[in-house]
Amino acid sequence: MPTTHRSRRGWGAVRRLPSGRWQAKWPNPDTRLLTPAPQTYPTKAAADRWLSHKRVDLERGRAVDDRAAGRPLADWWPGYLTFIQGRCRPSTIANYEHAWRLRIAPWFGTTAVRHIKASSVEEWLAAMTASGASASKVIEAHGVLKRVLDRPVRDGVLAANPCATRRGALPRRPTTERPVLSPAQVEQLAAHMRRDDDRLLVRTQAYTGLRIGEALALQRDDIDAPSRTIRIQRSVDGTTVVGPTKTHASRTVTMPTRLAAALASHLTQTSGEWVFPNRSGGLRRYRTFRRDSWDPAARAAGMTVTPHDLRATCASLLIDAGASIEDVQTQLGHQDPITTLALYARVRPGRADALADKMDALIAEVS
């Protein structure tokens, strides 16, 4: 049997195995034992170099768990999934699971995390884009991969997240100018709704800025018609799962007098828990609302609009009425005023001419 040769050194140990290759062992401060390197080396010099690098990493606080780094990425997915289940909406979790199953696991699932390099992530992103994946899907999948890899980084298994060290920008989502309706167009759209409560739902969204999930989750006690306020404290996802609002914060919005009177009348003529229920009195599904009411009404009105466009409509109407950006931010429930400015505070068609006329009047005062 071949002899195993050991080499003593000041830090760690190196020995020659029966196979002829060399093994390095480093003193693990956590276990106080000599821990083998994750691989063997063809020469003693190569094993010595690995030990030297390991010692420098330990002294600089950059050491990683080499054995755990040999585990596949899939080992970190269950922990991440458990973490988000108590923090994200069911629809968001479903999207992340879809990204993992279809885009991440087939490419990286069985790969040891130490072998996932920045260049690997760059190749993966390029392959997704070449396959025709939309910018939104690519950005979403990259975000999931980055957060899964954050776990071994925090656990001291990886020194850095390859998603953070990669080069190149992510694809940009195409920007589409969404419509902003005038009050006349809001009423035109409402008039084509098949149900009276759907007409009221359109007006409620347009004149309060509620998200469609927030509107469908309204309960009777949320409406205070005498004070013209609506308390928004929950939302429903694409199915019938009720949870917190998008920002996990409650807010109270004030509504126009005419809308408050219409909601008060509606509640006196109906019973049940939900303000805008389905035909059986239960929680209404967004997709059912789109299919049975919204989409047919939009086509009949000759409009290419979604329920979310009514939030931009509300923002523009509030600004026309003299509201500040901070006022609009509070009404819409945004955490950041930049979101309000970038996505919702748009000028309605025809409004630009009126603003230009006002500017002419101001100029005339000094000319």
Short description:
This protein has 367 residues and is α+β, with helices and mostly antiparallel strands. It has helices at residues 44-59, 77-85, 90-108, 118-130, 135-154, 162-165, 183-191, 196-208, 212-216, 257-269, 286-301, 309-320, 325-332, 337-344, 351-364, and strands spanning 5-8, 13-16, 22-28, 33-36, 223-224, 229-232, 235-236, 242-243, 251-254.
Q: What labels would you give this structure?
A:
four-stranded antiparallel sheet, 3 domains, 367 residues, single chain, alpha+beta, hpI Integrase, Chain A, DNA polymerase, domain 1, three-stranded antiparallel sheet
Whole-number radius of gyration? 30 Å
Q: Considering the protein shown, what is the CATH homologous superfamily of the largest domain?
A: Intergrase catalytic core
For the sheet with most strands, the description reads: 4 strands, antiparallel
CATH topology of the largest domain: hpI Integrase, Chain A
* Helix segment tally: 15
Say how many strands there are. Answer: 9
**By helix and strand content, what is the structural category?**
alpha+beta
Percent range of helical residues: 40-55%
Q: What's the end-to-end separation, in Å?
A: 105 Å
* Integer count of domains: 3
Strand order of the largest sheet: 1-2-3-4
Average pLDDT over all residues: 87
Ranges where pLDDT stays below 50 over 5 or more residues in a row are none
Q: What spatial form do the alpha-carbon principal axes imply? A: elongated
The CATH architecture of the largest domain comes to Orthogonal Bundle
Order of helices and strands: EEEEHHHHHHHHHEEEEEHHHHHH
CATH class term of the largest domain: Mainly Alpha
Amount of beta strand = 5-15%
